[in-house]
Input
Amino acid sequence: MTAESLHETLPPLYAKWMDDLLGGLVPRESRATCGSCAMRAPPDADKNNRGTFFDPVIKCCTYLPTLYNFLVGRILSETDPAAAAGRETVGARLARGVGVSPLGLMPTPTFSLLYGNSKQSFGKARALKCPHYIEDGGRCGVWANRESTCSTWFCKHVRGNTGYGFWREGLHQLLQAVEIDLARWCLLELNVSPQMLAAAMASKAWKGDAESATGATLDNHPDPAAYARAWAEWRGREQEFYIRCAELVGGLAWKDVRAICGPETRAHARATQDAYRKLTGDEVPAALAAGSFQVVSLGRDTVRLNTYSEYDPIEVPRVVLDLLAQFDGRPTAAVLKAIAKEEGVEIAPDLVRKMADFDLLVDAAGAFPGDA
Ligand code: SF4
Ligand code: SF4
Output
């Protein structure tokens, strides 16, 4: 398994912080082959190749990211000509005014309504295409300053659910907590008026606030009164505001972020370190039980299964599938010995770990609730 520096994977600002927290390389998620998207339907897709596939043009960019104030400022301050197209997409969001808040560029109510009610459209509906996705070349226009969700999402993970646990349940939760705390901290550091602070704190837009949709916002027009309340004394100077936020956050080291952000961030930081240890270690639970899964398709010698994610099915030889029931909570070493003796099949430790990574086998502690 190859590894890569966090600087190759994460936006530079986040990579700098995570280098301090984790202090090591991360395994490369090489199965998410974005240049030639791994979620495209194979050319021979037919009834035997059932599964979930994405539109090859828009891929997984059917999303409207929340770009927090300091990220918007960083994008607006970017002088690299290669970033110009992405900067324009942010300028267009600012100019439309919907979801433009001192906390950042929020999902619009229209998008939140669509996205929240059409989970099966992810990766498929062009109506959900991210405004920062540059179709010419199929790339992200704000790659160097993309937010936590876009920075930590992979359709497939080399180590299955163990990878998912690190990226999504660890790092994503951590960066999301940091983003909202730092966005609010910027408002305090800039000493905004009580009116502006109250409007920002009352807003749930960063979570995708479909409930606050009004006639105007559904038609993608800003609500003038709400906009004036939100921006108060900074109205008309929104870009300057975002750039000031970027200046404030850009100089922070991880120890500063940790000091500024609350216990939620610190708890997520610890969970991320634990998930990182699992991802970079090779431990498997001492006792395993068969996990649950969904059959996607049957081949003559193999079976295609969905386990931890419908985006990452696994092809399992039938002979291995037949042995799963042998894992019944006894110590793993004893089960492997019994399989070798009774079935004449030697199962290598790497295969056991892979089955555990992909939830074909799960930790027996907790797998049999009735035994407690
Ligand atoms: S992460 Fe997105 S772009 Fe990359 S391979 Fe997966 S679906 Fe395709
Ligand atoms: S911000 Fe970039 S990575 Fe995220 S959805 Fe948009 S184009 Fe894709």
Q: What stands out?
A: The chain has two domains: 3-280, 289-371. The radius of gyration is 23 Å. The mean pLDDT is 92. Residues 61, 63, 65, 130, 132-133, 140, 142, 146, 150 surround iron/sulfur cluster (ligand 2) (CB under 6 Å).
